[in-house]
Amino acid sequence: MEGGDIAWMLISIALVVFMVPGLALFYGGMVRAKNVGNMLMMNMASIAIVPILWVLFTYSLGNEGDGPLLGGLDKVGLDGMEGTDLIGVAFLMTFAAITPALISGAVADRMKFSSWCAFLTLWSIVVYTPVTYWVYTGWHHADLSPAALDFAGGTAIHINAGVAALAVALVLGPRTGLGKDDMSPHNLSLLLIGTGILWFGWFGFNGGSALAANGQAAQAVINTFVAGSAGMVGWVGIEWLRDGKATILGTASGLVAGLVAITPAAGFVSTLSSIVFGLVAGVACYFAIKLKDRLGYDDSLDVVGIHGVGGIAGGLLLGLFAQEHVGGQDGLLFGEPGFLVSQIIAMGSVIIFSFVATYAIAKVLDGVMGLRVSEAEEFEGLDASIHGEAVYTD
Prior knowledge:
mainly alpha, Ammonium transporter fold, 71% helix
C-alpha cells in the first residue's frame, strides 16, 4: 500500500471504532433514564468481546479460504500476518464489532446483561462470521453471475443485524407496560450527539471500504453525505405531512436510514443516485416503523425498521442504479437486469439464514440461562438492578 492509502485506512479504522460509543449514545438517548447505563454497557460489551474473537479465529473463518460457505483456520491468532496486512484485519474488525451492537437496540430495557454477552459471542461466531464470508469471499461473490455486491456492509451488517433483531425480539417478548407506560426517548440531546458521531464515523465506514485513498473513496464519501441529508428530508417530509410535526427523533432516524441505505452502494452509484437512496429509505423506514405495532413485535429502538428495511432498500436500489463507470457494474436501469436478480438472491439468503440461526441461538440461551430480567428488575430499571449504578443522580 502507498503511504497515503495507509494513512487513510488508519484514519478510517479510528472513525469506525468511534461509531460504537456514538451508537451507545444514540441508543442511550432513546431509552428511558433508568436504563441508559445498561444500553451504554451493551454496546461497549460488543467492542470488548468481538475483537478478541476476531483475532483468535473469526477473522480466519470469515475471510481466509476458498470454500463457498466458510473460510479456514490458516490465520488463527493472525498467524503470519504483520505490517500492512494488519490494516485490513483491523478495519474489518471494526465492522464485526459494531454489527451485534446494532441488535442491542431491539432488546433494550429487558434483557439480562449476562445473556446479552453470551448472545453477542455466539451470534458473532455462528451468524456474522459465515455471512461476511458469503458476501465478500464466498458464494455471493464467486458463484452468482453477475456477482452480488455490498460495498460497505448493507447485507453483511445492516440486513443481517436487522433480521437478527427481529428474531431475538420475538423470543424475548415485549417490554412490560408497552402501550400503557411512557417509553419515549429520555434525552433528545444525547440522541442527536450520538447521531452526529455516527455520521462522522460513517465517512470512514463507507469511504474506507474503498481500501485506498482514491476516486472510489471520494465517491463513497460524497454519497454518504448526500444520502444522509436526503434521508432526513424524506423522513421529516413524510412525518410532517402525516403527523403534522417535524421532530428531532424523526430527523435523526431519517439520517441514519439514509446512511444505512447507501452503505451497500456507496462506491457503486453516482451522486445523483444517492439522493434517491436517501429519500426512498427515509420514507420506507418511516412506514416500516409505523407497521411494527400492527405486526405485534416489540423492537424497542426500531432496529428492524431502520437497519433491516433500510439495508434491503439499499440493496434493491443498488440493483437498479449501479453504474459501471462508477464501480464496475451496471444495474437494471443501465442495462443489466441480472444484477438485480443476484442482489435479491444474496439478500434473501442472508435474511433466511440470519433469522433462523438467531432465533435458534436465542431459544437455546433462553432455555439455558434465561434472556429476560425479572419483572421487578425491569420496573426498577436495569441500571440499578443489573449494574448497581445510575447515570443520573438527584
